[in-house]
Amino acid sequence: MAALMRCARFCVTTGQIPKLLRVVSTGSSQTSVNLPFQHPSAAIQRSWLSTLAEGVEAEEPAPSTSTPKVEALMITVERYMRQFGRVSRKQLDPIVSTFDKEGTISLSSSLSLLRLHGTALFDEPPASRLKLAQALWEKYKKYDIPLEVGHYNALLGVYNQNKMDYSPTEFLADMEANGVTPNRVTYQRLIARFCNMGDIQGATQVLEHMKKAALPINDQVFNSFITGHLRSNDPESAQSIVEVMRQTGLEPTNTTYMTLAIGFAERGEIEEVKKYINQAEIENVPLRPGQLLEVYAALAMNGHNQYLKEIMTYLQNGTPYNQDAIRICNQLIAVGCDDAAYQLFLEMPKPTRIEAEQATLGRFFLRALARHQRPVEKVVEFVKDMQAREVNKDNISAVAQLAYLENQPAYALSFMEKMKAEGLPVRAHFFWPALCQFKEAKNKEGIYDTLEKMNRLADSRDDFNQTLHTYAIPGLAATGESEADILSKVQNYGFQEKEANFAYFLYLLDTNKLEKAIDFLKDHEVNVAMAAVRACLMSYMRRDVDWKPMFQLLAQLKSKSTVWRGTALETTAMVLKRALMLQRKDGWADANEIFAFLEANDMRILRRNQQELAEYFSGAPDDVLQKLNGLVSSDTAGDTDRGLAGPMSFDLSLEELKALVRQNPNNKGAQKRLLLKACGVGDVEEAEKVKSTLEAEGFVFPPQVLGQLAYMYAMFVKDVEKAQHFIQELETTFPEHKNYQAAVLKLAALQVSQGQTDAAVDALKRYADRHKDIVEKQSIPKPQYFSDIVSAAADADAAKKLMDTLFECGYVPRDSIPVLDSYMDKLVDSGDSDRILAEFEEFVKTQRRSPKVDKVLQFFINKEDPDRLQKVVDVLTELYGLMNVFHHLIADFIECGHIKKARKIMETPGLRANMQRLNYYCQSFIERNMIKELEALAEVTKEMFGIDRDNMLFHLIRGYVNQKDFERAKDVLVQYEEEMLAPSARTLRFLARNLETAGLPVSFEVPDYQPPVQMEEKGPATKRKETPKSTVSQAAATAAFSQAGQLKDSIEKGEVEKVLADLQGSEKGALAAAVTQLKRPWPIEALESIFESLAKQGDLDTLKELSMNRLPVFLRNSLKANIFAAAVNSGRTEEVLDDIETVKTNTGKYFTFSSLDTLHSKTPELMDRVESIGKNLISEKNYTEPLSVLWCYYKYRNSPRAEELMNEIPGLDKSVLVGALCDVAVEEKKADVLESLLKMKKDLDEKQGTAFVYSSLLQLHVNQGDADALEKTCESIVKDGIARASIRKSSVKAAENLLTEKNKPLPAWAEESSDSDSSSSSDEEKESKR
């Protein structure tokens, strides 16, 4: 005690807290492992255990071939640990095993792996965890893994968490002997060890040493002394520690009071326990549910079960605690406290309504019982009690399943005995997982025992043969059992000789022993099942296997079969097709011999097989086709029914259209299409030239051209009068034409920006009155068309008028976020508090939207207006729930400088981290250089339940690096150690890369980049994934063709979404498929309209259905983009990402700026997965397009991740396609993006790319009318030696026109050099191809 008082000046002060983070327990957020099925009822018993049996060997993810497997496994488990705060034994065992085989592991992975053997390993008892940790430590020494102070500190932490009895003196001596110097974390943990032993004197000596070394002391040290005094039977001194803390400038935390409560719980003094729980509540630092449950566990583990209910009373305040309860239940079961664990399970909050037939609560509890093989009778008692209470419908068969999941086959089989005794069904496939697991363990006796139990307990012999050849025989062979022993012994378990022989024959086929299988058939009688043979032969069809043994095998099987038809004939056709494919390569050399063999053995095929083969080999010699026809079986017939997609037109690029016009100068159709394209992409010079040519020849412009001209003059030329002229001409000449909404919207935005608000309102109303059906369709794909109109307003009143016009006319729904955000921006800028509150409340209540929520909250915080702030919080709570609103308030209070108020919110019981929101605020603070706010956010959320601390500290490092404060960035690594966390590989690579860039030394090991781990199934033979077939019936497809013609008319009327909405899912898929197969020509816009409508509705299933049909390449790419957009809109993004990772073909076509933007706003955590896909494709296929699109998106959003990717992926800058990014930057006036791209292209010395970006930059300055900036850019072009012909003609012409208009000198353009790689036709399309 005295030592603590003397060290007051070394204690942590408030200002030091960010640098001295406390070690806290990480709460668990995982409910339970999802099981394939939860109850083996009659309809699904066959599938749940067979699925498990097939997958039981596929639990280890397969690492990338370019990285050690142990590192790949560590990436997976570290990600899991950061997400859930705990790991299981099954996750760590494969890592340790792999490390033992490879004999190497990186420094960071070795540290992380050791730390995971503490309380994070929640499903093992302390003794088991210690044994595993010590074995791992010995392996580190065996393989000469460098052991630093962090390793020794991690080992100390594991020892302390598992209550190991070790000597601190010997531990320090071991460190000294190995040349490792202790640090403050070492001494803190040694103090904890002495205190856990009740050795206050030893702890005081360490404390004195810390004092001499001027090491700071934090609340962990005080908490340790509380434990020490209680364990030395000195409760009075323990209680006085609280006052000592206050005297030294530290306030007791809820961890302090939890330590006191646990200490008295161990002593069984329940009144003292309750006293400190209540005291924490009084001092406004209440114990969190997880901490209360630690007290519960301390009572249970020390035999004080009579007081457990009293602790549970503190948890009945509505605060959720189920995740912590799951963790504590597992820990209690691990040490044999089953009854206390079950009592806790029963107290856990349950759903208000539980249907008895659907009740599935408590499976985590049953799984823990199975994992630790608790007494069978006790488990049966728990199961029946759960059923009686109607909280879980599972019977004891579920425990057998869970035992299999825990790799406890013998325990599972003991429950099969119970199932039979209680009259529950027992099927053959229930035993498959046991056979797989005994095979893995090479346990021959276990396999025979399983066969014995299956023969004795199974209700029927269904699947006995499959069990034998798929599981039992391969398992016995793996143990070294001979063929003769297998065939003789399995007959003791109910198998006939012919059954055993056929099963062994199939095993030989499955293991690629074809010749041996043929020899086996000669000497053994078998019962033939051709379906099983066909399945085994499938793997041979993918290899160049000699045709003779394959047909010899079939001939032998035919001779041993009493019936040879159906599947047998199809199998013959399958083998024949493969044989003829090889013959085609060899010039049909052995074709006659093949047909002669088939005729000699009377081997036939079906009529439909013959037709398919004749079509496939249509170029074969006539005699081959004739002989093929002669193989048709006399009692079979077949037919074919193929629908072929009709011809499709395709869209041409601007340069292709120019070439087409040059080749056909009198082709008015080509000229019209060229004019449309030039207007659409903003090539004003080309458009004016074509327009003049057509006008001179008396060409009457169709309505589409007039609309595009109006769009061009509004969007690119910024000429109100000309845009109005062409719209008026269109409306007068073609009053029935409707599709010129984009031109009207761009004209309205231009008018508003020039102060003509009333004129813009009139234009919007006039179009809406004329074409109400088009407006109500709301099909314009770019929401910014509307938000731009409102954003251009001069004040809130004008913005309100424009917004109301858009709503009233039906252009956008009243809950349109872009429009509401634009209006709220103007409204908050007005400073009218009453109006801001009133309209914000109205939006939330009526539209269920909260536009610019953070800006509104910060407005009232800065105004110090608590009443209105509370009203905003109240209305937001109804919309999002209090927990989500708290995240907004935490960040907004911090940004406004009210740190204490933010910290106060953190004390809310049950508050759980929402990493999506926290990541957003971290990124926002970094981008705005608000480093103090970022520090405060990282500190305030430190003990938040479910927080990903690595992610938060990574953001903190990024913030320091962004400000070039590398010393503080390195200091964050000390925080990792104090919190007993391992920095992720991403964090270390990022910090090391920036230190090297700054010319500073890197003092830690930097792990290499590891691609994400992919799961692979193990098995005797790898099966190729079959292409999915369309689920649309022929009848539905036939009916759809009759509707497809109507759909074209509906597209022209703007009613696509209405037509699709009226159809059911299968009808919709059939109709969409039929559209692609019509013989009549369809415009690209029409088909894409269907795709976009389905994507907007989030109809992923129909789009996937459509992708199974034949489509031209350009439509397939459009379809891919809409599939991903539909997935994002429907919340099924991960499903499509799974498909993308599997297929890995043209992956970049799935991602667009729009879909990535939506994904980033809805589920930003999935952006990392998109990035991982891109990185994998670069490493595996050198395919850069996906990562290129993602990089362009990050650049478009000015995200620092763009620069990070460039640093992480060598050569990415050379492969990035920036065409689309340049166009978006021009449209959205992002000059900074173009300047950055320009620098990148210059650094790479890419003349053509540099010229392309310069073209876009010129166009941007012209659009803004900024002659000064334009002049400077022209000077830079001349200085860089970029020839005039290399710049887009439209950009050059527009630039020269503006300079002339502003009386600026024209640039002295450079002439084209002989070695230039540029061309006069460089545009967006050409740049993308480049």
TrEMBL record:
GO terms for cellular component: mitochondrion; nucleus
PROP1-like PPR domain span: 132-279
Listed InterPro entries: LRP130, PPR_rpt, PROP1-like_PPR_dom, TPR-like_helical_dom_sf
PPR repeats (start-end): 183-217, 218-252
MF-aspect GO terms: mRNA 3'-UTR binding
PROSITE patterns for the chain: PPR
GO biological process: regulation of mitochondrial translation
Protein name from the UniProt record: PROP1-like PPR domain-containing protein
Organism field: Littorina saxatilis
